[in-house]
Amino acid sequence: MPKSIVVNPKEVRKPQKLKIKEIPVNQYKPNFEKELKTFGKDVLKEMYSDMLLIREFESMLNSIKTQGAYQGIEYNHRGPAHLSLGQESASVGQCVVLDADDLIFGSHRSHGEILAKCFSAVHKSDDETLLDIMKNFMGGATLKVVEEGHHGSVKDLAMNYVLYGTLAEIFAREYGINKGLGGSMHAFFPPFGSMPNNAIVGGSGDICVGGALYKRINRKPGIVIGNIGDASMGCGPVWEGMTLAAMDQYRTLWDKEVGGAPPIMFNFFNNFYGMGGQTAGETMGYNILARVGAGVNPENMHAERVDGYNPLAVAEAVARKKKILQEGRGPVLLDTITYRLSGHSPSDASSYRTKEELALWQEEDCIKSFGAYLKENGVLTEAELSEYKERATEKLTHVTKLAVSLDISPRPSGELVETVMFSNEKVDRFDDREPEVLMPKEENPRVKAIARRKRFGFDENGKRLSGNQIYSYRDGLFEAMLHRFYEDPTMIAYGEENRDWGGAFAVYRGLTEAIPYHRLFNASISEGAIVGSGVGYALCGGRAVVELMYCDFMGRAGDEIFNQVAKWQAMSAGILKMPLVVRVSVGSKYGAQHSQDWTSIVAHIPGLKAMFPATPYDAKGMLNLALRGTDPVIFFESQKLYGIGEEFVESGVPEGYYEIPEGEPAVRRNGKDLTIITIGATLYPALEVADELQEKYGVSSEVIDLRFINPLNYDLLVESVKKTGKVLLASDACERNSFLHNVASNLTQLAFNYLDGPPVVVGSRNWITPAAEMEDTFFPQKEWIVDAIHERIYPLAGHQVSTVQTYGEILRRNRLGV
Ligand SMILES: Cc1ncc(C[n+]2csc(CCOP(=O)(O)OP(=O)(O)O)c2C)c(N)n1
Ligand SMILES: [Mg+2]
Q1: For the chain, which domains are there?
Q2: Which is the catalytic residue, given 123, 483, 594, 790?
Q3: Prediction pTM value
């Protein structure tokens, strides 16, 4: 428990001077005898050959992009190609000491890394394993293309498979390693440990930490490397990822048996440039990138600068660092210097650097110098060096022919994309081992306390029970969490103040006692990395629930939610699953930056499921649903609702397990004259409105709680609107572009002939959320809804309006933009 770490004023107020340990820079000393002993001649030759193949691969793409042809094969590639010419030694040197279960994540410039990692796995795997992977991956479709007419060894076939599969992917072909849905900047191949590459600079900086957490928590072998560029050190996710990876708790508070810190290496392929901005000297202040490690923890993240122009220097450093990571002493930061001889992309004219500088690096070209080194030491002859080059050209010519042909390599269909947006599976547990827990469920103090509560919110006389007697919305969430923790050993949950504090708004109170530290932990205040690492954890094969205290903090995790959580299932063509639930609470009382409902923003992004329960029964049943699925869910909760009891299911919230059917709205009150549709907490004022309409005006309202944002089944809504001919929609989201406008628009089209008038949307004002005392000027009030019905749906006999809800008012507000 953190309580065991006392913050002692006597200690922390003491004067002292921090001493920063030295950070090695280019300390590698070539020693051929040692290198030969470590690797042997064959591996040294393989390294040279792999570098050449990568060089040829990238040169081929460069030629296709700039001249429309390679070796007489014509092709117009419309997509991107961020080439890594010059950087081959850095990636091959890294991968030669990695095994297939070591994972690398990367960036937009990762062709070389994918190839190096896959080549290394091919060299290290036996024929049976290779055939097994090639036959089973994507139903063997990629293998079929390369095995046609192949007479060489299985390893050679596997090399062709990797080259063709990667190239076909870049050319958006169905037999590419991600069925053409990843493309140049996102391609990857998990069976050989090449994990998602990210077009968002620094995007892998926090995802990779999740991969390492997955390895550590689930005791899986292997380490994880996040390969990112030098300019990405300016990105929030990278800093947040390093912070999360360096938390003291792995060593101070987690069970020793878990193994210490997650085995993560942040490797910066430092080519000294962003696109055109020069990092050291212009856009960054670190001078030598490795220095940054000193700002993260007392070990300087074991940071080191290594000469990436020498593959053996890289291999030696990565092997040493791997050991540190395996011992749980990470994270590690490696500043691997290299140089991009090509432009950022083939259209880049290198206006930001001089020809002289380029010539200096060309003179020391890593392939030329490694070749010379091997020749000098008798590993390769001049003739063999030329032979290797010829073989590389031959191989690339072969796979390029296959990849450009539309007959051999067709394009994926649009329907394929639709089928991989969601995986829609149900998985009780992602591993068969016993879930690690600290006590039997029945002994949990909160479970015992809940057992004493009333699972329906009213007594026999219909009187509402008081707060401390009832089973609440937050209890429903707790039960769903507890259930999955005891079912799925891979399930973890984390976020800010998730442990002793009890999670935001006490939803997790009672979990600290039951769940060991490594399955439920407090994270650094790093919303981006909290979500991003959740992405990495989920796509590596585990289930994660991450919590953002307030919906507003989604802004901090914007890239992670909108570009990462949402997209990896589809960009992987369904190879990866994303069993990640992001819990966010919609607030109130705390003003402009703690009170927003952003359901509409989430609804706009393809690839996200979104749910918003409004009752304790649904809180439990919907979280159960989310926690058994394999898709990412943004799970909205309302702070206005955490304490409420169940008011609709008279038998009360069941003690056992159940799920709410996905996408189905719920009728909360039957009616015939008017349909009122709500999302979240607005259900309750809407019910009051329904009462008032009935009592005062004899209008019978059907009240429907939407519950789901995406996916959403419109059948029930359409049926209701067909019956009533009138519909009002209300929620706490700001009115402009509220998701309800989408629902209104669809209903207009789906039930146009049945509607007496256009649907009316009532939302919060298009303002900042003002102070608690002024919230009735902002959130939809009962009167607003009644007045809007009176003004825009049908006049309520004798009704006196107290607010302005006219069409003129809509025009006025829009004119002012408020
Ligand atoms: C978040 C984000 N900002 C900007 C870009 C545009 N962009 C693509 S690559 C790049 C430079 C990246 O430099 P570095 O991280 O050093 O990688 P390198 O390209 O040198 O391999 C930029 C600015 C982007 N893709 N993502
Ligand atoms: Mg760079």
Answers
A1: 47-122+183-347 (3.40.50.970), 441-638 (3.40.50.970), 666-816 (3.40.50.920)
A2: 594
A3: 0.97
